[in-house]
Amino acid sequence: MWEPLAPPSRDARPALRTAADALVETLSALARRQHEHRERTVARLGAVVDSGLLPSELRDMTVYYRAKAQRDLGRSEDPRHGTQLVADGGGRLAPAPRRGLAHLARLAGDFPMALRTAGTLGWAGRHHCVLGDV
Fold this sequence. Notes:
The protein is mainly alpha-helical. The protein is built from seven helices and no strands.
C-alpha cells in the first residue's frame, strides 16, 4: 500500500511571517492530520488562521479543515461556526461546508435543521446523499 510522505513533525510552532510560511504550515498540518492528534491539527491550523497571512480562498480551506478536526474532537459549536463562515463565503469550497452543516445539525439531534439544510444543497451538494443520512 502506498502512503504519502509527510514532512517531519515540528515540536515548536514555526514563525509565520509570510503567506508562503502560512501556506507551508497549512499543507503540513493537512498532510499530518491523519498521523497527529486532532488537537495538534486544530492548534496548527488555528495559528495559520490567526496570522491573517493567507488569501481568502486558502483561509477558507484552513478554517474548514480546522472545523473538521474540531468536529472529530467532539466539539459542537466551534466546528459549526467555522463551517458556517466558509459556507457563507460562497467560494469554491462552499458546497462541502454546507453539507457539513447538515451533518452537524444531524449529530446534534436537530433533524428539522438538518432537513432544511439538506433541501438547499442541490445536486452539486449531493442533497440525496445527505437526505439519506438524515
